[in-house]
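We both want to read discrete structure tokens more fluently, so let's practise on a single case. Would you write everything just below, so we can both look at the same thing?
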Amino acid sequence: MKQISGGVTAAKGFKAASTAAGIKYKNNRNDMAMIYSEVPCRAAGTFTTNIVKAAPVKWDKEIVTSSPFAQAVVVNAGIANACTGEEGFSYCSQTAKAASECLSIPEDSVLVASTGVIGMQLPIDRITAGVKAMSAILDGSEESGTAAAQAIMTTDTVKKEVAVQFEAGGATITIGGMCKGSGMIHPDMCTMLSFVTTDAAISKELLQEALREDIKDTYNMISVDGDTSTNDTVLLLANGMAGNKEITEKNEDYLLFIKALNFINETLAKKMAGDGEGCTALFEVKIIGAETKAQAVTLSKSVITSSLTKAAIFGHDANWGRILCAMGYSGASFDPEKVDLYFESAAGKLQIIENGVALPYSEDEATKILSEPEVTAIADIKMGNASATAWGCDLTFDYVKINADYRS
């Protein structure tokens, strides 16, 4: 497997476009994107666990479950189309109908996604005009894919995309993806939209299983602020244009596919955690020596969602007591008097506690390590061989500023 440049247009047969539809933003910035495959795709999807589900989530779940194939995705930024009732759901249908007419594909092959302010109705005339404009300029270039990744941003500060290639089934297979996500992010799907495309030939059943299992260790292991969104969506489209022998069983080709998919999803997940609203650092928490994977997952998630720990990371303060405290209220059992804790970054690695007791470490060295843009805390609980990694970010003054006036 090798990483290549690009995103959703990296795989064969995929095109993208973007446009400034004027949905909410007044600075003429692109706020709509479209992904299109030259041929029909097998589609898989995972969605928010929030009981309050946005209209696009409901629409996409039906398409992924019931439609024979998908071929296009229409995305808008600025308005989430959540808590909008029957009118909001009808706008999903109208968006799909517009794409169907412009692209000459079935209406039930069009997926839709929205991100932005909850409770506002979409300006459907601008949405359909945007669909028409994008349909005319679809392009398979890397630049077009990158522009699409930029168009779906809200409070994101950077575009997020990645692509890889690997050999399987007698062909070169490519997987690429783009996502957005910066705030209202919490495990069990976060306020994020992620779109992954591949030219692999793979059965719909295995495609869905691969995605469903992989999000457990990727998107579901990130948190920015503890808020699970109404719009979280991950869509995976496979058009088979690589020409590989179709993957229909869990053989070596399938293992290669899920390895590449994991790289895509983990990379995108970390990009979102590292771009948390107002943040200055990606905060990674590794729990090792756990008795079970579930125990390690619970402990790591508890630490990355601790506001006190996140604030300490922002202050470059090795306040290890907050980490042990967060582990202690997680609900997972462990012996705090056996825990070893380390901080690590590009500036070095430092053991802070051994068997639950502080070591004589240098505060200056600890501050230097914690001042890097990527910081890791490693907790060894000495109970077994299981492990888990979660990703979050520091909590800064700017997080409050951004969210205090988000609607305006």
Notes: The radius of gyration is 22 Å. The chain has two domains: 2-272, 282-404.
